[in-house]
Design goal:
There is one protein chain. The chain is mainly alpha-helical. It is built from two helices and no strands. It is rod-shaped and about 115 Å long. The two termini are 25 Å apart.
Amino acid sequence: MSDDRSRVRRLDRILKVQGQKRLLEEWRLSNLRQERETIDKDDVALLDSLGTESQLHGLFIEAKVRNLRRNEVKRSANLADQSATEQRITTTRRAEKGVEKVRDDARRNRDAEEETRSLESSVEGHLARRHPSFE
């Protein structure tokens, strides 16, 4: 019985760690998405600033193009990181579900054994009161 209880406690701790890992990856994914939005907004600002109304327009085009290219590299890296993070979240969720199943099975086994022991002791107590010679 204590083995089952310790197993359930151990599985609960493992499940808690898996949940923390998942939350960490979800937080990372959220940060990557915010970073992507910042890159996109920066691109929009750069493209909006390419207007021809300034006399110095041609002096800054190369710098703006370099910035747009740099943003594209950042965007590609960001998308790759997002994809990898989403895969890690999926893997962590699968592991979490697997641990939940094992923990639930262990709980059911523990509860069944406790119920069996309780019923056995009740029957033995009843028999001992009815038939003192069985002792």
